[in-house]
Amino acid sequence: MTKFVRQLQFQLFLLPILAIYSLFTIYPLIKSFFLSFTNFDGYSKVYDFVGMKNYVRIFADDAIISAISYTLFFTFSKALLVTVLAIPLAMILDQKFFTKNLLRVIFFFPSIPSGLLLAYIWGFILAPIGSGVLNTILRELFNIGPQPWLADPLLAKLSTIVVATWAITGWHAVLYLAFLQSIPKDYYEAASIDGANRFQQIRFITLPLLAPAMTISVMLLLTGGLKVFEIPFALTKGGPGYETYSITQVIVLRGISETQYGLASAMSIIFFLIVLAIAVFQVTVMQRREQSMQ
Amino acid sequence: MKKKSLLLLITIICLSVMLAACSQSNNGGKKNEGSTGGDAPKSVKLSILAWNNEKEMKPVLDGFKKKYPHISFDFQFAPPVTDYIAKLQTMLLSDTAPDLFIIAAENRNEIINGGYALDLTDEPFMSVMLDSNKPMLSKDGRTYAFSQTGWAGGLFYNKQLFQKAGINTLPETWDEFVQACLKLKEAGILPLYDRMHDITIIHSAMFGSNVLTKDPSFDEKLFNGEATFAEGWTEVLTMWKEGLIDNKILTPDMIGMTSDQVMNEFALGNVAMFPGGPWNISTIEATNPDIEFEIMAIPGKEPGNKYFNGAPGVGFAVNNKTKNKEEALLFLDYLSTQEGLKQFEEGTGGIITAHGYETKVHPAYEPAYKDGLMAGRIYLPMVSWGRHQEALRNQFLVGLQDIAVNKITPEQATAALDKKLREMDNK
């Protein structure tokens, strides 16, 4: 009993954050779940219960099907590219050289401004007309004609991935850097005495000890990627057609623009389950990998 | 550990259920409090939400305050269109909506059907409003907002570039228009830029010049179930595709352009035409003071059937639950006076289309004002479509971009629109 009272005292400290979390996360989630079974239009407070109708409609919706495939492509490509680029970048930034701190700041900077702002700036660089920055460079240097970076279905998808990767690689490199700096230098010294070359040191010391960082980084990349909105929205507005519509954009489109809150709530619930499933799977697999590597 | 987690989970759920219950009882138990009485003109603060910013609204607000010193404003602004609609929607749902707000084509059905706006039909100041402005803001013959403006959009063309390509008269038919574009192309001039980011000005005006000239009540039939998108729009989209896409006058890369880029390219003389409206004129002149340009209509298949894209301006409405009804109506009355119209015109730069008010428009804009706005030859689907405008607009946009990249045919695009309408009606 005393133990229970003691524990309760600690739990009390959690109450403020619990109240905020419940108000802004759990409550909207429960409310969305409830609304997903109604035909709520966002204006009228009178709405009817429609059962599973909204959930059935999702699977006949062209936009959401296209959005799921684009969002998954975006998420996994970005996660792969960022991971492949951020680890070597972190290793370089971990070296001792004159502009080390300046370079860390430069690579970290793109993750500070809003994605919307960055994407608008990239909109000028990727402008499809001859006067677009990238097209001008290509014409002047290689005599290549203007490319429709944001208008061709495939190029538009790739452009959004490149911009998103550019924006976040520095942030993840700093995350890896923090883990790199916690690896004791003795390991490397011992390895070099044993005759391990630089590549072997990376393969057998650095990468295994970076595994926990990779678990966190990949989880953040996957959940963040699945929730993507600003960058494709600002660059292409989802076009051409439904080619670069993200899942969140379709939810906003169906809910706010088309006043179908019931349908949008059902989409949000399905989306929540997809993110949850992927995140749980990824963390479980990567934690097992961590254990096997260490 | 498991017990602790369970305790935490139960607490979270309890808190959330409590919150949910609170919100339900708030919704159900909200009462409209009675108005505060008083004989002397005591000071009143009118709340207003507009999509013109405070600087634009200042002349008219100052003019009103001068006339009624006991009334002041709590002015709120949200930029058009999505932000404004979302903000007003949140305010209406939470019973915190201002005394005065605006109704646009995009939210008129929800506002009017939801009973959020006061019926203004019998107010004396409504006589100033043009009859052609009323349908957008009315339901069953009752009007719920006061609109004193209108706008028309068309194609801006560069006179010097037209002359350079040997085009001396404006096209009278769609074929002549396509020929003019090809002539410009032959002369090494880019004929036309269009971002294809909405139901475009060209599409709206083409529908007017080809369908509405034959059947002015087509949209009414469409939403009564007597006509289909396929019957009205397939020909228009086919003409557009064959004339502009197949001839590579419009190319898919234009989809990625921004509106500023398009306008700049036109102002700098890099392209001969672009679809625009009165809002573009000052920027074009500021970018290139030497440019000679004018707006023109989109011609139809038959000669003489020219149309512009356009609609009445947004309407000012009074919140049905306002406690300051008298003062809110006084504001609308002031808006309808010659002084109010002048202040509104000065502040917002909007084109006044009210009875008994003379508007001076820019010479480059005269054709749209005279032959479009005042002649009633303007069309905007968002105003004319009876319901589900946003859903249909999105479907239209996706369809036209897919046609532009040769992914679907005009027939498939209009079939998707018909399907969307059925789906929205049965949701």
Question: Strands, helices and their partners?
Answer:
The complex is a heterodimer of chains A (294) and B (427).
Chain A (H helix, E strand, L loop, with lengths): L1 H34 L17 H6 L3 H32 L6 H9 L6 H11 L7 H10 L10 H29 L3 H9 L4 H12 L1 H16 L3 H7 L10 H11 L3 H33 L1
Helix pairs in contact in A: 1-13, 3-7, 3-10, 3-12, 4-7, 5-11, 7-10, 7-11, 10-13, 12-13
Chain B lengths: L1 H28 L14 E7 L3 H14 L3 E7 L4 H12 L6 E4 L4 H6 L24 E2 L2 E2 L5 E10 H6 L9 H13 L3 E3 L8 H12 L5 H7 L4 H17 L13 H9 L3 E6 L4 H7 L5 E4 L1 E2 L6 E7 L2 E4 L6 H12 L1 H11 L2 E2 L13 H8 L4 E2 L1 H4 L4 H16 L5 H16 L2
Parallel strand pairs in B: 1-2, 1-3, 7-8, 11-14
Antiparallel strand pairs in B: 3-12, 4-5, 6-8, 6-9, 6-11, 6-13, 10-11
Helix pairs in contact in B: 2-13, 7-9, 9-17, 10-11, 16-17
Structure description:
The complex is a heterodimer of chains A (294) and B (427). Helix content of chain A is 74%, strand content 0%. Chain A is an all-alpha fold and 294 residues long. The model of chain A has no long low-confidence stretch (mean pLDDT 89). Chain B folds into two domains: 46-147 and 313-355, Periplasmic binding protein-like II (D-Maltodextrin-Binding Protein, domain 2, 3-Layer(aba) Sandwich); 152-311 and 378-425, Periplasmic binding protein-like II (D-Maltodextrin-Binding Protein, domain 2, 3-Layer(aba) Sandwich), CATH 3.40.190.10. In chain B, a hairpin with a 2-residue loop joins β4 and β5 (142-143). In chain B, α9 (229-245) runs antiparallel to α17 (410-425), α10 (259-267) crosses α11 (281-287) and α16 (389-404) packs antiparallel against α17. The longest helix of chain B is centred in the N-terminal third of the chain and has 28 residues, at 2-29. The two termini of chain B are 46 Å apart. The interface between A and B is large, with 50 and 50 residues.
